[in-house]
Structures are given as C-alpha cells and as structure tokens.
Amino acid sequence: MEAMTFGRWVKRLRAEQDLTQEMLSELVNCSPVTLRSFEIGKRRPSRELAERIADVLAVPPAEREEFLRLARLPVEGQGATPATPEPNGQRAPNPTPTFHATLPPVIGPMIGREAEQNALCTLLLDDSNRLVTLTGAGGMGKTRLALAVATILTPQFTDGVLFVPMAPLGAAALLPEAIAGALQLPPGSSDPSQQVLTALATRHLLLVLDGFEELLHPQAAGEQDAGQDASQDAGDDSSAATWIKLLVQHTTRLQLLITSRERLRLSRERSFELDGLSLPTAAAPPTMSDAVLLFLERAQQAAPDFRLERSNEKAIARICHLVDGIPLAIELAAAWVNVLSPQEIATELESNIDFLTRANRDTPPRHRSMRAVFDHSWALLNQAERATLGLLAAFRGGCNREAAQVVAKASLPLLAGLIDKSLVRRRQAESQARYELHEVVRQFATEKRQSIVTGPNPAGPMLRGLEQDTIWLAHYTYFYKLVATARSHLYGRDQLQWLAILDEEHANVRAALDRSLGAQDFARGLQLAIQLEEYWYVRGHHREGLQRLLAFLHHEATLPAGEVARGFVAAAILAIADGNYPAARTYIERCVAPIRQSGDRATLARLLRYWGLIALHEADYVAAEALANEAIELAIALNNHYEWATTLSHLAEIALIHQNYSRAQTLGEQAVQMLRRVEDKNQLAGALRRLAQARIQQGQWEKARHEALESLALNNEVRDQRGTAASIVMLTTLVAAREEWPAVAQLLGAATYLLARTQASLLPADQLVYEELRQHALSRLPNFHALYEAGQVRMAQEQNPPYHLDWVYRLLA
User: Fold this and answer.
1) What are phi and psi of 67, to 5 degrees?
2) 3-class secondary structure, 53
3) Facing residues of 162 across strands?
C-alpha cells in the first residue's frame, strides 16, 4: 500500500469535503499554485500554514500531530525546500540556491492575463511538462507574462530561476555559451554545450529563454530559395531546437519556459498560445475589459486627466477591437491621447498601420512601432509563406480550409507554418476549423502584397474591375458561388444550415461587395447583392442590404437591363421589410414591366406577393387580394409550393383585417400544412402567427397558444428578430385576455427593442394588434412606461439570437 504523504492526505480530505483547490486556497490564504505544489509533493508548507490547513480541513485531534509531522518532512529528493509564504505575507527564510540570478525588472503593473498566468504556473509545476513554449504574435506581451510567471515560481525551484534573452545572440551556436554565462560557469571551456549539460544535469531550475524565434532562422528569410515551401525552412535543421531537445534529455529536474513567435516543433514540447486581451462586448462593458483597462492605464501616462466617459467609451472599445486586443498596439494607440481624441485615433487606425508608432525612447527598437514588430516577423518568413500570407489578407473574418486553398493557394504545410509562427490563428467553428489574421497583421500583409504585385503590367490597361487584381477576382468568384448555392437552400429543410454558413462568411461577402464597388465592377457587385437578398431579409439586415443594392443600381445605365430589374425586385422586398413602403412601390414600378416581359414567372410570382403587401399596408385591400391571387395562379402553374403557401398566408392576413376570421383560419391552416411539407421554418412561423390570430378571434385559446408558442420558437431558431418580435406581440394578446397588464407592458417593451435593434417594422396585421394592446395597457397601468422600459432593458441583456427567452415564457405562463 502506498505510504501516506502530506499531499495525498490534503487531497483526500479536500475531496471528502467537496472543495476545489481554488476554494481551499482561499480559505487558508495561499495561492492555488502553492496548494497544488503541496498536493503533488513539490513543496512543504510552513508550520503556521500547515496548522491553518489542518483547521480548515477539520483534521481529527488524534491525527493532527501526524498530519503536521508529514507536512514538515523534506520533499523527496530536494533536501530542504524553499519555505512557503506565510498567510500574513511574510516569507520564511529560503535555503541558499546553488547560484543567484536576477530577473529583469518589469515596469508598471501587468493588466489582465491572470488566467494565462495561473495556467502557465500549473503547467510548469507539473514534472511531465519539461518544455513549455509560450507562443504568440509580436506585441502580445509574451516576455512580460513569462517574467511574471518566473517571479511567482522562483520559490518553487531549489536552484531558482534563470532568464536568458535570445535577441542579442543572433546565432544558434551561441546559445550554450549564453546560458553558461548566465549560470556564471567558468569561462573558456572548449565545449560550452557539454559544460552547460553537465552543470544542469540534476539542478532543480526554471530556465526562461526569451525570444527564441531569433535562433530558429539563422539566415534571413529573404536569402532562402524563393521556391522553398514552409516545410523546408530552417526548422528542419535548426541547431537551436535540436540542442534544446538534447538539454531536456540530459537533465532530470530542469523546467524550460521558452517565449517565441514560433513553436519549436519538438515531440516533448507543450505549446501555450497567447492571444489578445479580453475585449469589451455587450455582455462585458468597457470597465470589465482588460484591453480597455490597459488603454486607460497607458493613456493616463500620456495625459493624467484622461478618463473613460460615456462620450468616448465606444471609440475606446473600437480602438481595442481594431487591434484585436494586442497589448503593444493598445499601448502605442493610447500614447496619442494627448494629441488626438479616441474617435480620431480610431479613424487613423482603420487605414494606417504606421499610426501605431509613439513609443518611449527607452523602448527596444523592435517594439517602437507595430510596423517594426511585423517587419521582424516578415523577415523570418520564406517566399512561399510571404506570398500566402499576403493572399490570406484578402479574407475578412477568416476562412475555412477550402477557401484558403482555392482563393489563396494555401497548402496545409503553408497554413501550419504560418500558424506555428503566430501570424495565422486557427479557430474551431461549429463543423470545421477557420483560419484568421489579426486585423493589424492583415493590414500589414495587404500592404506587403500590394507592394509585391505593383509594377509594370503590359496587360494592365486592358483589364477592368476585379480582373485588375487576381486575388480579389478569385475571392469574389469563390464567395459568389457559395452565396448562389446557399440561396437555393434558404427555402426548406436545409435553411438553418445554410443561414449559419452565410453568417460565418458575411464579413467576406461584405468585403467582396465593397471591393466590387471600389473597382467599379458594378455588374458583379449587383449579381452578388441580388443573391444575398433572402439572407438579408431573414437575418434582419434590411437597411444594409438595401443600401448596398442601391449603390450598384445607381449605375444602372452601365448594367444589363435584366439584372437591373431583378435588383429592383430585391430592393423592393428589403424596403418593405424596413417599413419603407413608398420607396418599395417606386422600386416595383421600375421593375414589374421588365419582369413580366422577361417571362421569369418565378420572380414575377414573388414580386406580386410583395406588391400585395404594399397594397395591404396602404389599405387597398381589393388590389392586395388581386395581386395575391395572381401570385398563387403562377405558383400553382410552377408547382412552387413555397410561394403558393406563403401567398396563402398573406391572403389570411387580408381576411384578418376584414375581420373574416373563419376564412383567415381556413387559409392559415392550408398555408401551415403546405409549409410543414416544404419544411421552411421562417415562413412557417409567420403562417402559424396568422393562424393563431384567427383562432384568438374565435375563442380557440388553447390551439392559438400552442401555435403562437411554436411560431416564437421557430422565429428565434432562425434568428428572425422581426418575426420574434411579432410572435411576442401575438402571445401578448393571450396575456391581455387574462388582464395581466404588467406582463403585457413588459412584453411589448421586449418586442419594441427587437424591432429597434433591426430597424424593422411589423407587418400591417401585427402592427394593428400591437397598437391595440398598447392602448389597453396604457389606460390600465399608471406605471406603463416604467414596465415597458423594463421589458426593453431585459431584452437588451440578450446578446445575440437565438435568445434565451425563459423570462418571456415565464411572463406568458
């Protein structure tokens, strides 16, 4: 049976009392890292701390003396070990280490990084992690974090901590000599490598090697073969990485913490990637964001009276997002507050990487600007990696593996190399990995690519639009095909899957539209915008979609007439969703004749259905019904059950307005039945809402409730915020029937917030219900406005659809 030790005893008692290490450490007033070292047998506590642990864990009196005796036994293989800090902060005397090393001073407090700091300490206290590499892009604060960790862990190592910077070396062969010098070994050895291996063979030491990427590329990247692949760079024969492997193999108790922009790619290496500081979100206001706190701390160095205020918090948040929370970039931006306002700083950052240059004179040259940081990283790349990074910069919001290969010709070895060098980030999305660049890296890589591709081009004057730049043409082509494929799947069972795909790629699609407009390639831009209309409609991007369509339609004289007509159809639909019915009528008048003449009956049926909505809004019910009936005739002829069912739902809406509830119910039941077969969740939600409204007017409360709840769930699932608001309004009718007016006020406030968020308006039948409910609640509640605003505030706490609407369901119960 294994002998009982102090650490095992503590761990057993902690488990019996259901305490985590963090909980126990707080109770006994020591750090979780310190407690972990007790449990794994790497340290012993002071007498006072051992007694405190015994008290908290309620060690029985008969066993207490043995518990304290085990606590004070020397840790196996170490002799006397450093004493633990006492609860009052005083530290008992440590035994004298074999040598003494001084860590470089760190100026100012480290903001954020508590989680990373604790995780690194835990890794380095585990003997199985002999080699930990702290990786990250330039400016992430790797050195600062490594020094903080080394300071915390100094008492844990019998022989202390040794910090050796790699920047001054310049050659891998000098690595053993630099470590020998830091160890204060006798100079003049003919074999410094063997001298270091012998000296460190049994020492219990934390060795920190800072900036190791310097030694992984002994030659400048520009001197490498231009055709060399990423898998063939200096890492294949890196004497520095090979020597580190030898060092781990020939030592028994040495722990290595290496900071590097690039992994060493050794089998025993444990990589720890450092990303940007936490950013402000709707859920985490600026005062809870580490990035914003760092900006404030550095800004107040430049302007002591600088404060975070309501007038500047959005601009400061924007700055932090533009630099992806990179600490160095934040510090460089904050240094400008005594010259520019945060709003002006954000504007500069959006287009000018050289703006991030304002460091103190005592800052190392490499960290005086973000350009210097990335110039250094660029110099470590081979030609293939440089070309690939420049092409990857065309993406916005990252890309998946297929897009990287098709658009940027990025092979897996090239992607892996750029990830290893901390220039590309890998993020796991729902079904596949995505590859992303920090925004400042993207700006820099874009500039580098443009400088490479500019030059004499005999064919240049002959090329127009996107054809002038092959990467943007490839980018557009890829995403046009993706959007066109998605469009055909947005009506039916695959709707949610393809909506999610377009959500993921929306930033890339926006970039393709922006580039088309900038290159005056209006035809391609309009084609893509037309394909996006249904996605914009469902996701509530009505106003943005309309603005983008009109930007291309403004140049209709240069565009094919058929595309212009389809463009105005899309514009009319989005204008209706935005509640701008006069504009929608104008757009329909521009396109209805060309669409009829073209013989495109599918587009005509859709156009007539939406034209009927305009007539409905304008109370021209005869025209509304005539247009809907013509649309249904076309849908039946085309065997288009989606269009047929959706138009039936619009006829049900007309019947509701005419108070013909029996007809509305019949039409609604037909629409619901057909849409269930089509499996289109978005339109089914609307049809269910119409049917529920008809049932309410006929006293069929339970069926109405069931259908309205299903409508709400479907709208929320497909993230149709306007539909979600309309479903809440419909369900509020049931609450009003029970005369629960406080709940009515809150639910109406929630619906109003969703409409304001998407800048949308309710359809006519829903708007009538909303106004009637609001008037009833106002007349019955003296505090209506307070409750109404409470509903808005509660809805505002929901960050992104689909929402967690438990609180709504509680009000409806």
Assistant:
1) -60, -45
2) helix
3) 207
Strand partners, 255: 206
Please give the Cα distance from 531 to 671 (Å, whole number): 26
Count the neighbouring beta carbons within 10 Å of the beta carbon of residue 444: 25
Determine the Cα–Cα distance for residues 707 and 688; give it in Å rounded to an integer.
6
Name which of 246, 249, 223 is nearest 234 in CA terms. 223
Q: Model pTM? A: 0.74
pLDDT category of residue 32 using cuts at 50, 70 and 90: confident
Q: What is the pLDDT of residue 15?
A: 81
Length of the chain: 813
Measuring CA to CA, how many Å separate 723 from each of 113, 382, 624, 650, 760? Answer: 41, 52, 21, 15, 10
What residues contact residue 657 under an 8 Å CB cut-off, 6+ apart?
616, 621, 764, 765, 768
**DSSP strand pairing (433-436 vs 161-165):** unpaired
**In this structure, which long-range contacts are made by residues 751-754, counting pairs with CB atoms below 8 Å and at least 24 apart in sequence?**
751/725, 751/726, 752/725, 752/788, 752/791, 752/792, 753/791, 753/792, 753/795, 753/796, 754/721, 754/722, 754/724, 754/725, 754/728, 754/795
Query: Which letter does DSSP use for residue 134 in this model?
Result: E
d(CA 399, CA 668): 42
By CB atoms closer than 10 A (0-12, 13-18, 19+), residue 215 is: buried
| Residue at 254: amino acid letter | L
Residue 376, both tokens: 């250094």
Greatest mean pLDDT range, 33-47, 178-192, 222-236: 178-192
β-pair type (425-428, 433-436): antiparallel
* Residues 176/301, Cβ–Cβ less than 8 Å: no
The secondary structure of 552-601 as a DSSP string is HHTTGGGS-HHHHHHHHHHHHHHHHHTT-HHHHHHHHHHHHHHHHHHT-H
Give the 3-state secondary structure percentages of the chain, helix then strand then coil, rounded to 5.
Answer: 65, 5, 30
